[in-house]
């Protein structure tokens, strides 16, 4: 591996793999993600985007907003309800 060539392989395209790839890219690495799934999971079946911690961990890079817009067609983040109040 030559100087300056900082590639890294990430196994798993779930929330953890995506968060790792984003953070590594911000630090100058070139991540490549592999996953056993044949393609993206439909939003209705995704468990990762329904977990507040996932969206929070991706918010520093603004990836959460981009992901929500691309997979669900949102123009803004969805409303959050806590104890019956928005």
TrEMBL record:
<protein>
    <submittedName>
        <fullName>FAD-binding monooxygenase domain-containing protein</fullName>
    </submittedName>
</protein>
<dbReference type="GO" id="GO:0004497">
    <property type="term" value="F:monooxygenase activity"/>
</dbReference>
<keyword id="KW-0560">Oxidoreductase</keyword>
<dbReference type="InterPro" id="IPR002938">
    <property type="entry name" value="FAD-bd"/>
</dbReference>
<feature type="domain" description="FAD-binding">
    <location>
        <begin position="8"/>
        <end position="68"/>
    </location>
</feature>
<dbReference type="GO" id="GO:0071949">
    <property type="term" value="F:FAD binding"/>
</dbReference>
<dbReference type="InterPro" id="IPR036188">
    <property type="entry name" value="FAD/NAD-bd_sf"/>
</dbReference>
<dbReference type="Pfam" id="PF01494">
    <property type="entry name" value="FAD_binding_3"/>
</dbReference>
<keyword id="KW-0503">Monooxygenase</keyword>
